[in-house]
Amino acid sequence: MFGSSIGNIFKVTTWGESHGKAVGVVVDGCPAGLPLTEEDIQIFLNRRKPGQSPYSTPRSEADQVEILSGVFEKKTTGTPISMLVWNKTARSSDYSEIAGYYRPGHADYTFDEKFGFRDYRGGGRSSGRETIGRVAAGAIASKFLDSLGIKLQAYTHSIGPIMIDETNKDLSEIYNNPLNMPDASAALKAEALLREMMTAKDSIGGIVDCEVTGLPVGIGDPVFEKLDANLAKAMMSIGAVKGVEIGDGFQAAFAYGSENNDAFYMENDCVSKKTNHAGGTLGGMSDGSPLRIRVAIKPTPSIFQSQETVNKQGENIQIQIKGRHDPVIVPRAVVVVESMAAMTIMDGLLANMTSRMDRILKFYETL
Amino acid sequence: MFGSSIGNIFKVTTWGESHGKAVGVVVDGCPAGLPLTEEDIQIFLNRRKPGQSPYSTPRSEADQVEILSGVFEKKTTGTPISMLVWNKTARSSDYSEIAGYYRPGHADYTFDEKFGFRDYRGGGRSSGRETIGRVAAGAIASKFLDSLGIKLQAYTHSIGPIMIDETNKDLSEIYNNPLNMPDASAALKAEALLREMMTAKDSIGGIVDCEVTGLPVGIGDPVFEKLDANLAKAMMSIGAVKGVEIGDGFQAAFAYGSENNDAFYMENDCVSKKTNHAGGTLGGMSDGSPLRIRVAIKPTPSIFQSQETVNKQGENIQIQIKGRHDPVIVPRAVVVVESMAAMTIMDGLLANMTSRMDRILKFYETL
Amino acid sequence: MFGSSIGNIFKVTTWGESHGKAVGVVVDGCPAGLPLTEEDIQIFLNRRKPGQSPYSTPRSEADQVEILSGVFEKKTTGTPISMLVWNKTARSSDYSEIAGYYRPGHADYTFDEKFGFRDYRGGGRSSGRETIGRVAAGAIASKFLDSLGIKLQAYTHSIGPIMIDETNKDLSEIYNNPLNMPDASAALKAEALLREMMTAKDSIGGIVDCEVTGLPVGIGDPVFEKLDANLAKAMMSIGAVKGVEIGDGFQAAFAYGSENNDAFYMENDCVSKKTNHAGGTLGGMSDGSPLRIRVAIKPTPSIFQSQETVNKQGENIQIQIKGRHDPVIVPRAVVVVESMAAMTIMDGLLANMTSRMDRILKFYETL
Amino acid sequence: MFGSSIGNIFKVTTWGESHGKAVGVVVDGCPAGLPLTEEDIQIFLNRRKPGQSPYSTPRSEADQVEILSGVFEKKTTGTPISMLVWNKTARSSDYSEIAGYYRPGHADYTFDEKFGFRDYRGGGRSSGRETIGRVAAGAIASKFLDSLGIKLQAYTHSIGPIMIDETNKDLSEIYNNPLNMPDASAALKAEALLREMMTAKDSIGGIVDCEVTGLPVGIGDPVFEKLDANLAKAMMSIGAVKGVEIGDGFQAAFAYGSENNDAFYMENDCVSKKTNHAGGTLGGMSDGSPLRIRVAIKPTPSIFQSQETVNKQGENIQIQIKGRHDPVIVPRAVVVVESMAAMTIMDGLLANMTSRMDRILKFYETL
Lengths: 367, 367, 367, 367
Hints:
4 copies of one chain form a homotetramer.
Chain A: E1 5-6, E2 11-16, E3 22-28, H1 38-48, E4 66-67, E5 71-72, E6 75-76, E7 81-86, H2 108-115, H3 131-147, E8 151-159, E9 162-163, H4 184-199, E10 206-213, H5 227-236, E11 241-246, H6 257-260, E12 264-267, E13 270-273, E14 281-282, E15 285-286, E16 291-297, E17 306-310, E18 316-320, H7 330-351, H8 357-365
Antiparallel strand pairs in A: 1-2, 2-3, 3-7, 4-7, 5-6, 8-9, 8-10, 10-16, 11-16, 12-13, 14-15, 17-18
């Protein structure tokens, strides 16, 4: 039961249930001297806040972050950064009914079996609210990476069958539509689809892409701590994610070596690659090309149609889920994907500092 | 640089380079009293051995495992199990040429940048021979899981565009063809494709599936140590893997909630699911259904066509790779995928023992 | 920088500075179903609360704990337990002067060098208030151990030269005097000594003992995760601890093998030991005898005498520390020692569940 | 059961039983580019080799190390360094008798209880031969530290009541006597005592000191990963160690604050300390003064006198241990203590590189 921490050096521990007093995170291992304010965190949290579009839950929570430790005179001190968000508008009564049965597609049944009982209110620990801690940590990691010139950008690639048109991709569009798509026209079509879903009391899945530029070469380790392996874990640890790809991903399974190999060439005295099928890693280490990560997100399991399931007494029953549920998870997952990528890369970047004697000697000689 | 260990309780540490003295593994955390012999390990190693088909390298190594510690009177003792395989027929001269340039699709460049230099012989640490340690550890994990009634089966799902026919799938066929496909007819087509590849001095990718049955409910933890998250990391840590799916994977991104949700129902007094789109996990914990894992494997990067690249002096050059290289990685990766799944599941299963007070009290009261 | 977490399975992460908003702890890995209330925690916290005697700081903080997550219907849920205590009466102005120089015996200088600057208010992260998180976690571990019949008792063994009389030891006396000594007469003498210290503007060190009974055999692992090794780390991680002994400790360095060996014999069909020089461990594993731990605690470094030191400008200066400081750390350290022992033992006890195949098979067969 | 690994970044995993095929170690996390040969390791191993004096076992093993991986062209490559020593002269028959009973002071009983059975030959995993792996790893760490100007020196401080005379201490004497004492005259007295012990079929304990100079300020972390805490764990993980002190250790429990505080002053523009009661750490971080570590080592538990114990059938019996056993552990423990200190410090030094933004930015900007 080590469930709630991730990272070797930049270590992130989230805590909290959907309808407990608060949700939060402790970030240990952030270097001292990084400028940091609650506003830096809030900007990230606002990107995942509910109630921002007709397609997300109207729960109008402020989700205002408080930094409780680890920051002094607006800089990180090198000690653990504890952050929390109070759970304000929790209406537990909405959920009391679900205490007794197992919602399809949810963790109710597995929680009960593993732990003997569960905090059933609002999904408890498996609620999307757990990602508040992840995003708060991701905001720190992003700020750190930014100071090294490393930029991350996640966005919605598709909702159901509605994909962005790669030839029409415009990253500046991402925040101009409620679905975080870098293609205004695709966003309009996807919105229409979501309205259909709501009418049909149904939901739909989608795909999130994340691109990272500015990474130095050599982040990640050769065997089990490969950068792509840790990214895969980080992504698959997000509740609704069912698949992860690096670079061409499953397309590589259909490719010839002669097309999948990215040829090296010199560009401005730097080793560069003519293509980037690999998606920015070779042998588990960053290769200097943009990192390309893609994740598949399942449809919201809470739908308003009648569903078959069983109750705790072991009877087959018919249920109808109430409450507030988005017809799609994807747009709000975008900042979570970006956050998980940021913390994974930051962790790898810190670990990388110990890889070479020449650099270590130089580091300690110039202190 | 934590690169070479994986697992929290069942901890596996591989070591060794392709053309060093030996490759091996230390397995720490295996419970005492598991019957184990070198033969148990050898059976697994033989499944990944080269030279078993026209499509794998003719390097005729015995790859004979030696258990050096942790086993006494044919049972594990609870202490670290150290195993090694000597590197016998290493012909380093084959590789001396590659010291000076970076092969496309390989880790040569990233290794040099990260570590300042590299053991270039045969790919060094990034060689497929590193997986010998993984498979030896996987053999132990499989034996452990088998004693609890948990069975794993990995196989080749596709090579390039040649997929098995699900309606024709026959697991007993897996070892009857050199490609480890559970469909004799697909295997014949794939063999033809591989002969084409060899003629064209090219290579091809493919997909490996792994199914696990008999898992108890509740293996894996709710947040970062999700069973699927750890499986994703374990899979993506295999050199050539570019994508991982659990259950329907990327298909879930196109599905409606009403079809993707697996309805629960009672069967023989057990909670069961009518479908298994989820692939055996809910909320990161095993749900009692078969676990379904799918990984995408890129084409062998070592191809015999002329390729563009750069050398260490920063010049654009043209290279032609020599030596022994398979036109496809997939068939030999099958047992590696199965091994990584086995150790990940075993680790989760051991961790799960501490999840509930009632079970802990019972455990300690009956000692 | 992994500084703030301890434990492999029962993982404790403390956070917070003396004069930040709050101090707290996240406990991950506590089994589900342990009855737990804020009152359980508060009882432990009250044992370390300041202002309880003339020899401890009059800072009259309530130190009231809040459980923010991981407990539902008065039982732990198996998810992280987040607890905090608000810092209410922090008067930072008391401390502004110390920003510019390095107090002897404190971490001011090392903090500045390691992190570039520090939160100097009240000792920041190195304040004794950090132990609030430890004690809150220790309260949980103690409750867990108690349910298995394992009892811990720490107490003051000596303050300066005033030791308890072993022939007069009465554990029921521990809470009857402000020094937590199990010997009323020694306590009176020690109180007199402390009054002398206060008059002399000086401080004094002392020794804390901790005894643990009811431990099953086999807790701890044979090599690096020895129970005594983890106890030594846990103890030495307490700010003022300078020495740790298990059993006879340094006395064993002067003993003959023939006297130091504890002879085994049968008692009521159980393997028992005639003596307990070893202090309850053999080969790093608990042997069924009482565990005996002893720690040396240095005198409070904050004394009111004039002291020599340097300031941040690199000048030799003379300082006089102000504020509220105890003449002795020992009595308030007692519950911290007990807490660290409790969490270390609980961690070992959970890890021990995976040591034997026969027990694992039985565990999983009876689910 | 994580027993056999230590270290967060410089990770050391030992394996092997006294009478198995071999003993060894895998060192993961050693930076690339450190010059390293088998000779470097052998020099350290020779310091712990048996049969070097009348007071150590005559088992005349070569204990010749083989490096199997991680070194190429006489430099470390950044990949795991696997090293082993074959067990050549194992005469298991000497030990067959002890299979059935529990030797006092040994781990026989706890092993049997924890794991259900044990490899009883020569102490199995609890044999002193396990330290071969530690010393091999320590040789690497020492070489690394040496390249940064950090020097370690451990030595025998006392054997039973015979202590070195601090005023007579001469570190150049350490290798001139078989007891590794830096005081020739004390060594002679101790040798006389050991001859007495052998005649009396008894054994005796002692104390090992370790001093470290040249450490930069700031190694170690403020809370649980304190340098002294990790040293305490490392030391107490050595089989026969029963106590650990940093600096004045237990003496500090009897000291006044006014004498125990080390006054800072400026010396050659550097912050220095007038005394070093603290032993080189403040707040868990190195303070630039020499590190002083002291460990208590119990007498050899294998003595040739008749002893009382029990057998596996639960009968009280009388035993007489046969075989080869030293009358004192201390001299051969010296290099083990030094090795454990070296690896702990190296680990802390690598971790320290990530503590400050200004240094990280500089590190990455100059790559």
